[in-house]
Design a protein that fits this description.
The chain is an alpha+beta fold and 289 residues long. Helix content is 19%, strand content 24%. The radius of gyration is 19 Å and the shape is globular.
Length: 289
């Protein structure tokens, strides 16, 4: 069964993307168990934010908005993997955003420039999945208000308007677009491509934790991680110790487009977005996988 065929999946917007994949915006209410959320909130709350979290990111907005790794990260990741699997997978990740009032929301973006469009990438893609994925995924916890997801190219009723040439027609200037305000425990999965570019309104109170990842077909795994549920995955994770989790978070092979050396050079350039992609990635040639 596909995750979107589950009876607990709420379809906020329906769309078939350019690659023929059933897509749009999918919502799972109260997905994260209360006990798990409360435990992670109690652990992360006193720790605040990692003040040196620029790390390998090439988008300065993320600076100082990442939490330290929670002890039950793997359990959280496996919970999501159980929901979407076995047809769909996510790569290892410890990226949990810690967003508060004053962070000014999040910029409008698509999760992927398109399949095979790696030359357009302007963010680190160490698992080499950004041009293989089909959806973006975000799970929410914390006590917060505000932080609505908004999709400027989708009408307020969530129904895409497609013209006679097959192009999406966005809302006219001044007309409202589709928005959804996530709540504690929600899991949102949305199309990785236009017209589902999206942003986030500012959090108005509290702290919103958001675990994000990319969803791709199991067979499209580029060989940078072991799919959840496989023999290789369980052998890799072993006794689930912190040491094993640290190793699990490392890609099985390096994406040559985003080596540590190239990332450092990109960061030092001060470029971001389209300018960074044009300068460093437009003419980069990757060897066949």
């Amino acid at each position: 069964m596909n995750f979107y065929d589950r009876p607990d999946c709420i379809r906020l917007s329906k769309y078939t993307d350019a690659y023929g994949t059933e897509s749009g915006i999918f919502l799972f209410k109260n997905f994260v168990p209360e006990e798990l959320m409360a435990d992670m909130e109690a652990e992360l709350g006193p720790q605040g934010r990692d003040e040196d979290s620029y790390g390998s990111t090439l988008i300065s907005w993320y600076t100082n908005k990442i939490t330290p790794r929670p002890k039950r990260l793997l359990e959280f990741w496996e919970l999501i993997s159980e929901l979407i699997g076995p047809k769909w997978v996510i790569h290892p990740s410890q990226a949990i955003l810690n967003v508060r009032p004053g962070d000014n929301g999040m910029f409008i973006h698509s999760d992927s420039p398109g399949k095979g469009q790696c030359h357009l990438l302007s963010q680190d893609d160490k698992y080499d999945t950004c041009c293989e994925l089909d959806y973006g995924l975000v799970a929410y916890f914390g006590n917060f208000e505000g932080g609505a997801l908004f999709y400027p190219s989708i009408h307020a009723d969530g129904v895409p308007r497609i013209d006679e040439n097959g192009w999406n027609v966005p809302p006219a200037q001044g007309e409202p677009c589709f928005e959804y305000t996530p709540q504690r425990g929600d899991l949102v999965i949305h199309s990785a491509f236009d017209p589902y570019a999206h942003g986030v309104r500012e959090v108005t109170s509290g702290v919103r934790y958001a675990f994000s990842n990319f969803v791709l077909k199991a067979e499209d795994n580029p060989g940078t991680f072991y799919n959840y549920g496989t023999k290789e995955y369980y052998e890799q994770i072993g006794d689930r110790s912190e040491e094993r989790i640290t190793e699990w978070l490392k890609p099985l092979k390096v994406n040559p487009m985003f080596t540590d050396e190239r990332i450092a050079i990109m960061q030092a350039s001060g470029l971001e977005g389209v300018e960074l992609a044009k300068e460093f990635n437009h003419n980069f040639v990757k060897e066949d996988k």
